[in-house]
Amino acid sequence: MRKKTLNDLAARAGDLIVVRVDFNVPVRNGRVADDTRIERTLPTLRRLTATGARLVLLSHLGRPGGRPHPEASLRPVAARLGELLGEHVRFSPETTGPEAVARARTLAPGEILVAENTRFLAGETRNHPELAAAFAALGTHFVNDAFGTVHRAHASTAGLALAMRARGGDAVAGLLLEREIRFLGDALEDPGRPFVAVLGGAKVSDKIAVIEKMLARADRLLVGGAMANTFFRALGLETGRSLVDEEGVDLAARLMDGAGDRMMLPVDCVVASRIAPDAATREAPRAEVGADDRIGDIGGASRRMFGDELQQARTIVWNGPMGVCEMPPFAGGTVAVARSAAAATATGAVSIAGGGDSAAAVRAAGLADDFSHVSTGGGASLAFLAGKPLPGLEALSDA
Questions:
Q1: Active-site residue 203, yes or no?
Q2: Which of 96, 233, 269, 396 is least crowded, fewest Cβ atoms below 10 Å from its Cβ?
């Protein structure tokens, strides 16, 4: 880390600290349905409140389009945070302005206030300087613990960090953000060998930078998901009515030419006439996919082949499912990869599930505790692995 962290922040009793968290969690019937992201921020919040600091938490929830929507309110999230902490957490219906500042200033040492959804404000996603300054007016220092948002230059991330620094305060990384960057950074810069990367998802063109980065650093690149279909098409194989990134076919061919045996594609598939939760499926070698088939997952032979590679790995980075894992008929490949990675971890490998669908699949399989690290940010981890700038990180105070 070349940026300041909590270790560099001399928080004192009574300090008002603005903390950007990623509480973009599913809320159903007024209750938080998955509190994983909330739980992951607790170490940072507890460390700050233990010093007597007063905290104002900012987060987005959903995509309300710059105007208030009751179903996207953070009020239920504040209630759940209070349950997890075992203490009352205040809520501010205002995100900025005199009322929000007044509420923040009435906090007692160690108390927490959750402000309303930052995306209720039109300037948030446009990184409007005046809105960033209004966020900075809520406190004297800024802690960013929202890894899932650092790839975006929004007012409550990059803009707030710069505005707080302009006011003379510090802008530092929280414990969760620091952990995410260290795990991903170590995997790229100094991985244990063999280093095996697993990539899934839909479009080759969406992950071209990650594929190129992994091919330059990994000993093996295992490709699954709908992305593999595009490589099958580039090999001249029948893909039936499966999802194929038509614009990425030529690109896939070039990638295979340069990768040689370091890139491994599935050798068989789970196919069906339709992708549905109740679909009747069969396994077929990749050369025997029919014209009316839809590929929904990797097959048993591919799972064993991928598993053998993962068992030998000392570093594993996984981003993207092996199939349509939210549907039981097509979830087996993703679960098999998760189990193989977890087994390798038990023998000393470092395993990282890169957020989004991969993290959800690991949790659904009950294996989250068996990975070295399960990221809280799908888009952010993808951007980091691709070597793209992370504006929310770059704007923090230099160490």
A1: yes
A2: 233
